[in-house]
Amino acid sequence: MYPHTHFLFAYLISLIFVRLGYFSHSQAVFIAILAVLIDLDHYISYVMTKKNFSLRKAYNGCAKGHKKYGKTRFHFMTGIVLVSIVVALLYVYNLKIYSGIIAIAYYSHILLDHIHLNYIIHLDKRFKYNIFGFHTMMSYPEVVFDYINIIAILLLLFL
């Protein structure tokens, strides 16, 4: 999934917890930003593989599905186990707010990636566009999902 989808979904989940009194609005924004930053492993992998620091080339390479610098261990079972241990330790040491922030950011990101890799990526219809040299090929279900997230966010913010 694309960065804005990770942001919107994590922000939506965070806003639910804001409504329940667990987080502030600024923490919800931080969680959403953190959910996007989880994909920095793609950029690091690209730099290590290509020896090139171009963010645009790294983004376009991942958007086109190059496997050499795609998902790293952080997106699979190794990452899930390590993050789960960190979340559990933070919770045990009574740092529950940090535990919740990391958990929502990471697990919402991994959930969307799992759905994307196992269900959505196989669909042929794509919405393609180019902004400032950044190529994007979003599937129609992702576009619809983004609109649903935006509507739900607006409802949570203003109702």
Summarize the topology:
Elements: H1 3-19, H2 25-37, H3 40-50, H4 55-63, H5 77-92, H6 96-120, E1 126-131, E2 134-139, H7 140-158
Antiparallel strand pairs: 1-2
Brief account:
69% of the residues lie in helices and 8% in strands. The chain has a two-stranded antiparallel sheet.
Account of the 3D structure:
It is a single chain. By secondary structure, this protein is mainly α. The protein has one domain. Helices cover 69% and strands 8% of the residues. Helix 1 (3-19) runs parallel beside helix 7 (140-158).
Low-confidence stretches: none
Mean pLDDT: 89
User: Beta fraction of the residues?
Assistant: 5-15%
User: Could you say which structural class the secondary elements and strand pairing correspond to?
Assistant: mainly alpha
Number of strands: 2
H/E series, N to C?
HHHHHHEEH
Compute the gyration radius: what is it? 16 Å
Distinct helical segment count: 7
Per the principal axes of the C-alpha atoms, what is the gross shape?
Answer: globular
Trace the largest sheet across and list its strands.
1-2
How many strands, what sense, and barrel or not for the largest sheet? Answer: 2 strands, antiparallel
Distance between the termini: 28 Å
Number of structural domains: 1
Q: How much helix, percentage-wise, in residues?
A: 55-70%
